[in-house]
Design brief:
It is a single chain. By secondary structure, the chain is α+β, with helices and mostly antiparallel strands. It has 9 helices and 4 strands. Helix content is 54%, strand content 12%. A hairpin with a 3-residue loop joins β3 and β4.
């Protein structure tokens, strides 16, 4: 058997996106979550609302605001409507009042920076759709030095975010969570 690193790591696009985010925010302990749309488009209105609802639960439980394409788009719509409020309640409500065509139009406005969007969306982003995105949760950098606290925080995020519903499949990609799952599966396979 020939060892091939690409076969060992999760889906290449996941690894690349995670590395890009870590490089951009190296002084924070990041817990990224991969979001894959079952209809092939995370930029669909229903999917964006679902992401905001999950992010709201993270915020309510951990007092940290995740960063995602849903945040960027909903905040842009709020700003265009001259709203000074930027709560999850407002973000979800503004998204309920726009159409998929409104979202496509917003994404194609000249002031919407493509390079920034590419950090949050899968490489198949074509201006209208993308199959996957990352929700990034920035936690205190002290978690780099405290594996137990990192695992506890990731476990809370995992409990809130990890889901497979009719619209989205969300997978938490936190380092300690992945390590724990690899070790559990390794132990299980050794016991067989």
């Amino acid at each position: 058997y020939e060892f091939d690193e690409e076969n060992f790591v999760p889906d290449n696009i996941v690894v690349k996106t995670n590395e890009r985010i870590r490089n951009e925010y190296s002084n924070e302990y990041l817990v990224p979550s991969l979001v894959i749309a079952k209809n092939g488009n995370v930029l669909d209105k229903k999917n964006l609302i679902k992401m905001l609802e999950v992010e709201r639960r993270v915020y309510e439980n951990m007092s940290v605001k995740p960063l995602s394409i849903a945040d960027v788009i909903s905040s842009a719509f709020l700003a265009l409507g001259n709203s000074s409020s930027n709560t999850y309640y407002d973000k979800i409500n503004v998204m309920k009042n726009v159409s998929n065509e409104d979202i496509k139009s917003l994404l194609n406005l000249p002031f919407f920076p493509r390079q920034y969007l590419s950090l949050l969306l899968s490489e198949d982003f074509d201006g209208d759709r993308a199959e996957a995105t990352i929700i990034s949760i920035s936690l205190n950098e002290s978690l780099f030095e405290n594996e137990k606290a990192a695992r506890e925080n990731e476990s809370i995020i995992y409990g809130i975010m990890e889901r497979d519903d009719e619209n989205l499949r969300i997978s938490v990609l936190g380092g300690e969570t992945i390590l724990k799952n690899i070790m559990r599966e390794n132990t299980r396979s050794l016991s067989i």
